[in-house]
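Predict the 3D structure for this chain.
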Amino acid sequence: MFAPQFSQALPRRFAALARCAVGVAAAIGLSTTAQAAWEPTKPVEFVIPAGTGGGADQMARLIQGIVVKHKLMKESMVVVNKAGGAGAEGFLAVKDAKGDPHKIIITLSNLFTTPMATGVPFSWKDMTPVSMMALDQFVLWVNDETPYKTANE
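Done. Predicted structure below.
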């Protein structure tokens, strides 16, 4: 019953992802005067606190491709996956690089859940949000044979 709606939503989700990536890439290339003064002096790292192939990884690689295709930066943009510890490795790498504008993180809800589940010395408050690039829908699933039909149950 739910699967057809989910599968129909995927093309829309990827289209929305592409629109967001184009917007981010355009923002990188068409920044305001104050921001335009900054140019990377070394490769920019897109840190992904997850393995390859997931949503954050796909978003980073899409943006990377647009930046390269349209020559929006003189320096390269490198996607670095740091999935260890449910993403803690990636979060700590960016936290430890405080003040380094060459290190950016793209993350999903694990920004909140990893510190709660692992006790890693990191909080979402250690980061500065720049832009919401996509909105994921999270679904709670149970085995069809269980009596549970709502989250309250």
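Helices lie at 3-29, 33-36, 55-69, 88-96, 110-118.
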